[in-house]
């Protein structure tokens, strides 16, 4: 049994002998020596480089406080004479450092009182920020945005106590305990002329965000690049800073002329006040360069407050709008009718159609046509397209009288001679159906017929501007090429780009894209349009002392038979060497009979009567140096009389007979628009504040009922047989929202 028993052996305990004790003592000594060396090294680093590492140990709050954006100034926009249309003024955001204010019980109340008394900041708002656990230790809380520099200086003057200050000790202590308030720089976009050319200039939604006008199209040029300021605290708690300076945006010099724009808006406002319309558009262009001198798209709004709908709607109407309705109303107000909207142009295209037919060789200058009141179409001649004078007729006409009489029958015969293919090619030659490439966003393209959609009635009606659509820019640009010798220039709004110091970095030259017709055909068309002013449908536009050409247009809107018309007029002066071209569209005038092209002629005549002298165009029909006075539309009487004795100075500002600046009501103002008394001093209100004029650009008042239209001019199309325009398969305002340099004459293969 003894052999079956298992014996367990115990491990002997290992005892620390003398040798092991020596090893342990050596290891302990080594560790101790390392710690002494490490402490020595830390002491050395702290003594020699402590500040370097201390500077990097910042709290998040400190980093936010000392890492700031330095905003770049957005570039200015000028008119061609140097008048500022848009600029950016330095403003300040008021920042509260709650942690600093809460660091001492004596700081809170003096700070709250100073913010309320000087800056008008609600004291409950400040108390809430100081007491709320979520913000009480914050070093960055925005109390107020866009504070003026004057207010900033006033606050700083209050909190800065000089040694020799006459203040009492209690007052010095009060002001000295204002802590934790600082000012962050920013810029506020400002528009000195308020609503002038609002649709063309556009506005910024934020400092560098814009969707409208020149501000949008040239946004990347104007915006610049922000800088940054980096800071840290040194051993004495002083701030060490590194600054990356901002790069200010570039300035833009436009082709616009403030003086011309004021003249245009003066007569548009006058017509609106006396008669009114659904919409009125005016474009003034230099036909020899493509430069847009003025553009008015109807609805006006203050660019400094672009979301204010009060110019178009009553307070009750605005309050009743939901969000969707408000957005719709704003977009409609901001829309540039001259650029985006496409419509049937009517008879204003007749000179262009005739020029194309002459250029294609379909007709000759000596051709005659017989107007018998209209043309019949269809297999059974069951579709009859009338001339405007039907059941009367114009009889036998040469080309001049086809234009002067605005004869639809003659134009239909010309289109028939051209045929659909040549007609469509001629339309494309003048850029109908394609965007012009103007440097504005959201340009419409209009739509013309193709060979698949153009039948004989479509061809006939296209000859007098019905059955297809175009924009105002397409029409005026095509007509410019017809009257300037045949040269088609790309329309543009910018002449020059400058750096922030005002030095020119780029000059925008006129871009000649193609030649549409010969100079001989151009001269012939000018003479035909001159005859229209002398004895034809354009005679109501005559400005005494100046030769001019013109063409009326009356287009019945679709669906036919609704008695809704768009009437228009295009004119140029002088005849031999045109210096300016003006296109006026009146959409649904407030008249019982809308089909009267005298209405846009009244506006154009008023504009030309002031525009030509303003441009220093020599009267070419003066007799013995005497220019007879032009008798304007009687509807302007009593509407424009407040400014009838005014003139425009070299900088485009309205002045009285003595050369003093005035507003639209004839009140004397200074360069900033403040009202002046007879001694030239600023007027004060009852609170001792300067009074700024509210009538610098526009008239006010309701639209008055229309007077009798009187004599019909003879352009109207009132036949249900006129086809509807073809449907556009694409969004007409997609694209054309990027900066473009276009083509130079050399690149286009032109001299």
Structure description:
- By secondary structure, the chain is of the alpha+beta class.
- Among the domains are: 65-188, Penicillin-binding protein 2a (Domain 2) (Alpha-Beta Complex); 262-299 and 335-615 and 641-655, 3-Layer(aba) Sandwich (Beta-lactamase).
- It is 31% helix and 17% strand.
- The chain is built from 21 helices and 23 strands.
- A hairpin with an 8-residue loop joins strand 19 and strand 20 (565-573).
- The chain is elongated.
- The model is unreliable at 52-65, 642-646, 697-712 and 740-751 (pLDDT under 50).
Structure at a glance:
With 751 residues, this protein is of the alpha+beta class. Among the domains are: 124 residues, Alpha-Beta Complex (Penicillin-binding protein 2a (Domain 2)), CATH 3.90.1310.10; 334 residues, Beta-lactamase. Strands 2, 3, 4, 5, 8, 16 and 17 form a seven-stranded mixed β-sheet that branches. It has a five-stranded antiparallel β-sheet with strand order 10-9-21-20-19, with helices on both faces.
